[in-house]
Structure formats: C-alpha cells, structure tokens
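call fold(seq) -> tokens
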Amino acid sequence: MLIHHPARMAILMFLLPRGRATFTVIQKALGITSGNLSSHVKKLRTEGLVEVKKTFIELKPTTEIFLSEVGRNALITYASQFSVFLQNMLSDPNR
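ret:
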C-alpha cells in the first residue's frame, strides 16, 4: 500500500490536522531532503491523496500541499485497519 512507506505516512500525518502546508514547512518538519519530499509528494498526488498548488507569496514561488478528502479517508482507513491488526496480534501472539 502506498501509505505504508514511512515518509509518505509522515507527510499525510503532518497534513491531517492542518489540511495544508508549504513544501518548505513539511520538509523542515520531517527533516527530509527536497528531492525525497518531491518524489513522495508526486506519488501521493498521482494516487489523489494530496493536491499540489503552486503560487506566489510575497513575490516568491511557493508550493502548497493539500490533503485531499481521498487522502484523509485513506489515512483514516489505514490507521483503523492497522489498529485492528495490532490488536489481533497482541491478543494472539501465535497468529
């Protein structure tokens, strides 16, 4: 699953309470290179999990990343499924 990758999960989790953030803010918060962030955002965008908008703020080009409704639902579903899996594993370690 696309969300399972740690960097993509971190991007989506960072966006979940905010809805959106600039590329630079995400990069600094997660401590990943711009190349890695760009690559992961591209994959998330291709699947419709995020939207990307390029604008100018104070005459500087800025890239904003938005968590889409599809992305929000996918993240919540993934977290719920993972929680059930984890509970099952903890209740029966011999599984």
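Strands lie at 20-22, 50-57, 60-67.
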